[in-house]
Amino acid sequence: MPSEFALNVGPLTDDLKQIAAEELRETPEVVAAALEELRNLLKNDDKIYFKTDDDKVLIMYLRPCKFYAKSAYELMKRIADFKEKNKAILDNLLPEDEKKAFIENDVVNVLKDRDHKGRRILVVHCGEIWDPSKVTTDQMLRLFYLIHEAALLEEETQITGVVVIMDYKGLGMKQIRHLTPSFSMKLLGFIQDAMPLRLKEVHMVKEPLIFSMVWKIFKPFIREKLNKRIHFHGSKMSSLHKFIPASHLPSDYGGDLPEINYSGKEWYPVLDQHLDHIKMMNSFGYRN
Q1: Do 287 and 84 form a contact (C-beta atoms < 8 A)?
Q2: Is the pLDDT of residue 245 over 70?
Q3: 187-243 pLDDT per residue, tens
Q4: The model scores a pTM over 0.90
Q5: Dist CA 244 CA 255 (whole Å)
Q6: Radius of gyration of the chain (CA)
Q7: For residue 74, with 0-12 CB atoms within 10 Å meaning exposed, 13-18 middle and 19 or more buried, which class applies?
Q8: How many whole angstroms separate alpha carbon 15 and alpha carbon 121?
Q9: Residue 163: phi, psi to the nearest 5?
Q10: How far is CA 196 from CA 78, 105, 116, in A?
């Protein structure tokens, strides 16, 4: 498999350690104290299960909470709750369950190149490329869920975070009728309550006038923290470039990099390569 489609599971560079110390309070003393406190909180809770004998696993949940153990514990409880509420969609979810959606439909993609801040960029095609009769909104959530599980394997991504580009080119009623309040509650419940990744920015691009109908459905469920991170650009790519320079974007978004010529098809084997990790993540949540 080409290395451009691979997860970076190597050790942290000195630069990343520096960013983690500055932004996340990640110093050896703080980490050690947080790990001990989080372990104790989990050991005294007989309702939820998370692997406690692996520092790397616990750090996945401590990083987005800046190593405040109580906050990480609350996050884990919300994750268990979200998984329980959405059991029908997420229970024992494996990449092979959505292989067709990944390989045959270019709905969700991850750019090969990170941005200028080292962040992963997820591209979601919500417009004409998305055929809801082939990929349902529940499947969309399942795709996001599998991608986020894989992204958590990258310590670099845990530290730098992720950016999402929502591409609404060609959005029509065919798509809008599937973007229901129940889907928006599920999706935003995941993003705002149960996702241990640092979501730094969400960029809405190429949204047509009809997009206002979609925004009315989603807006009531968006809390202030996320709202501040959402930016609307329409067809003005120069507006997007204020956040992500053209040097780090493909020509699809007015960037200097080549046009995107790959999709979930190329990324699917990466997910399949890390089944042990995904199965472990599946085991977390409420105890049976």
Answers
A1: no
A2: yes
A3: 999 999 999 999 999 999 999 999 999 999 999 999 999 999 999 999 999 999 999
A4: yes
A5: 9
A6: 19
A7: middle
A8: 20
A9: -125, 140
A10: 10, 26, 22
Of 110, 119, 212, 201, the C-alpha closest to 159 is: 119
What is the C-alpha to C-alpha distance for residues 20 and 273, in angstroms, rounded to an integer? 27
What is the tens place of the pLDDT at every residue in 111-126?
999 999 999 999 999 9
Determine contact, residues 105/132, Cβ cutoff 8 Å: no
> Do 26 and 17 form a contact (C-beta atoms < 8 A)?
yes
pLDDT, tens digit, for every residue of 154-173? 999 999 999 999 999 999 99
- DSSP secondary structure of 70-102: HHHHHHHHHHHHHHHHTHHHHTT--GGGGHHHH
The burial class, CB within 10 Å (0-12 / 13-18 / 19+), for 234 is middle
How open is the CA angle 66-72-75, to the nearest 5 degrees?
A: 125
Contact (Cβ atoms closer than 8 angstroms) between residue 8 and residue 154? yes
